[in-house]
Amino acid sequence: MHTNFSLLAFWSQGDYISNIVALILIVMSVLTWTIILLKTLGHAKQKSFSKRVELFWHSSSLTAGLNALGRRPDNVFLTLAQDGIEAVQHLERSPISQDSSLGAHVSEKQLHDQLDLSDWVTRALRNSVEGSLAKLQSGLTFLASIGSTAPFIGLFGTVWGIYHALARIGASGQTSLDQVAGPIGEALVMTALGIAVATPAVLAYNTLVRTNKTIAGALNRFGYDLHTYLVTGARVDSKQSHLSD
């Protein structure tokens, strides 16, 4: 029997349940750091895209404005502008209809064409904002779940490991301190591992949620100005967006 405190000793002394719990925690840790890396890079991109909004408003045409935003498929600000333009084109009442580069108009009337221009554009922009925010929030629920369950999974592994260690000690008849402390101490590693998995998940979740709110605020402000421009032909400088109502 191993009497030294080591992960190798814990793994060799543990049964298949203890090893499965350890593997689950390791997988959860890998997934946590993968999500953190991907979401951090994604949020950094969106924050850089948000800084291009003013370039959009200082452009000479909508086509130039879209180019200024950055024609990237993951650019939520570009997606919002394109959805707003397409909504106006659909009703054939857009002030940008003279821009031939934006494509042909839809002539066939549908039930939602009974909405006025303002309501129709608001609906399109709101749907675009909600769709983009849903993508930005993907993975956060998983982080929250890991943060809340990992400590309990680690605690279960510790309890099971202690039971398994005590059963082996009892069967061997050796009750000296060195024979008891080693297996029990190694079982407690599971609790430490659970906490080590949960802590970055919780911290990352809180940070990413806060960053999401910042991006959502910028997206809603852009949507409000875009709605005003597409409906009236002029931008209104406002800090509130009824798109988030």
SSE order and pairing:
Elements: H1 7-13, H2 16-50, H3 53-57, H4 62-69, H5 76-91, H6 117-137, H7 140-172, H8 177-232
Helix pairs in contact: 1-8, 2-7, 2-8, 5-6, 5-8, 6-8, 7-8
Features:
74% helix, 8 helices
Structure description:
The chain has 245 residues and is mainly alpha-helical. Helix content is 74%, strand content 0%. Helix 2 (16-50) runs parallel beside helix 8. The chain is rod-shaped. The chain starts with 6 loop residues before the first helix and ends in a 13-residue tail after the last helix. The model is unreliable at 93-107 and 238-245 (pLDDT under 50).
Uncertain regions: pLDDT < 50 for 5+ in a row?
93-107, 238-245
Please give the radius of gyration in angstroms.
28 Å
Distance between the termini: 65 Å
Strand runs, count? 0
- In DSSP terms, counting alpha (H) and pi (I) runs of 4 or more, how many helices? 8
Mean pLDDT: 79
Q: How would you sum up the global shape?
A: rod-shaped
The assembly state of the depicted protein chains is: single chain
What portion of residues belong to β-strands? Answer: under 5%
**SS-based structural class?**
mainly alpha
What is the H/E order?
HHHHHHHH
* Helicity range: over 70%
Major sheet: size, sense and barrel closure?
none
